[in-house]
Amino acid sequence: MDLLHSLGVDLTLNLQANYSHYESIFHLASSLADLHTTFVVFFPVWFHLRQEVGIKLIWVAVIGDWLNLVFKWILFGERPYWWVHETQFYDTAPAPVLQQFPITCETGPGSPSGHAMASAGVWHVMATAILSISEEKRHSALFIWVTRLWLWTLSYAFVVLVCMSRVYVAAHFPHQVIGGVIAGITVAKMFSRAGWIYKASLKKYFCTTLCLLTSALGFYLLLKMLGVDLLWTLEKANMWCTRAEWVHMDTSPFASLLRNMGILLGLGLGLHSPLYVESRKSKSAPFSLSCVIASLTLLQLLDTLSFSSNNPVVFYSLSFFKSTVMPFITIALVPASLSVLFRSRRDQKML
After folding, report:
1. Residue 291 contacts residue 234 (beta carbons within 8 Å)
2. How many domains does the chain have?
3. Distance from the Cα of residue 13 to its chain's centroid
4. Ranges for the Phosphatidic acid phosphatase type 2/haloperoxidase domain (predicted)?
């Protein structure tokens, strides 16, 4: 593996030396590939424009990231920014100097890449959704073919850009991002035939959330009993990150696990809320657009709420609660509030 890692470091050095003028683009790509963007931007837009796509986005994102967590605990992947300091591969030669960035020092294992996996899965869902809408409009075969060609080209170009960005910031080795892309597309294709997610009961949401959470925690405890320290990466991040403020608790495995479980539970609570059932009566284009704008605004405001990581239990608990509230705002609270507003305006016009 040292040889494979050294080749990855060479590629990182090459990217940092020759493509530093694209640094802002690489950072933007990593930001868009983060599941945080899926939850606070892509989901509210798609849910109010085409509900089933929004639901699928959440399931693909949550299950994909859960699998990513399990893979990381099994594969024990190194990250370039700490590997160069600890490896014996370079013997007496000086270790390569990798530039670090605010998004470099993630605290979990590196394989497979979560950003690559998320971008591949989420963008696959969105691309297939756009193609489906195009085919429903009964456009000509040539138009559909051209749309499919350009859409998949742009989607995969973005995924490649994300992979390059993760290697550029020294957060991942090339083989880790490639594995992430393959895993992400596989998860997206699995859910392309999972019609049950649109009819799942609240009980199923509770059971799925509890099952995913307890199985991950059980796996963690089992490995810990066997003497495996799954928090080994946190120590490395704190040791080798050039700036302490770049090490964030919200990039730890447990933080992402609880965030995703909160999102999934919030999706179920929202879809089965009386507020959501009542708001479904309003389906006009102005109403949907208003829901999108209001949801994006409120989620951005909620996103500014951050918690101190001094007490891990409080930090994880509040993060879980915040994640649960986010989809509920989009699905139930915003549509119900706007439904009352639109209805009152309509009644005034009838007087």
Report:
1. no
2. 1
3. 27
4. 53-192
Query: What backbone phi and psi angles, to 5 degrees, belong to 178?
Result: -65, -45
| Structure confidence by residue, pLDDT tens digits, 301-313 | 998 888 877 788 8
Q: What average pLDDT score do residues 229-256 get?
A: 85
141 pLDDT band (50/70/90 cuts)?
A: confident
User: Closest Cα partner for 258 from 302, 318, 198?
Assistant: 318
Q: Is 148 annotated as a binding residue?
A: no
CB atoms inside a 10 Å sphere around CB 267? 28
Active site amino acids: 115, 172
Mean pLDDT of all residues in 283-305: 91
φ, ψ for residue 329, nearest 5 deg? -60, -45
Is 249 exposed, middle or buried (CB count within 10 Å of its CB: 0-12, 13-18, 19+)? Answer: middle
> Is the bond leading into 112 cis (omega within 30 degrees of zero)?
yes
Residue 94: phi and psi, rounded to 5, are -65, 140
Query: What Cα–Cα distance (Å) separates residue 222 from each residue in 216, 217, 276, 336?
Result: 10, 9, 40, 45
CA 223 – CA 230 distance, rounded (Å): 8
Please give the residue range of the domain that contains residue 333: 2-350
Kindly give, in sequence order, each residue whose CB lies less than 8 Å from that of residue 280, ignoring residues fewer than 6 positions away: 335
Cα–Cα distance between 266 and 289 in angstroms, integer? 22
Mean pLDDT of 265-270: 96
- Give the integer Cα–Cα distance in Å for 339 and 344: 9
Give the CA distances from residue 65 to residues 36, 118, 309, 350, in Å, rounded to whole numbers and listed in that order. Answer: 12, 7, 22, 50
Distance between CA atoms of 178 and 7, rounded to whole angstroms?
14
pLDDT tens digits, one per residue of 119-139: 999 999 999 999 888 877 777
User: Which residue has tokens 């393959």?
Assistant: 182
For residue 343, say whether it is annotated as part of any ligand binding site. no
pLDDT at 201 over 70: yes
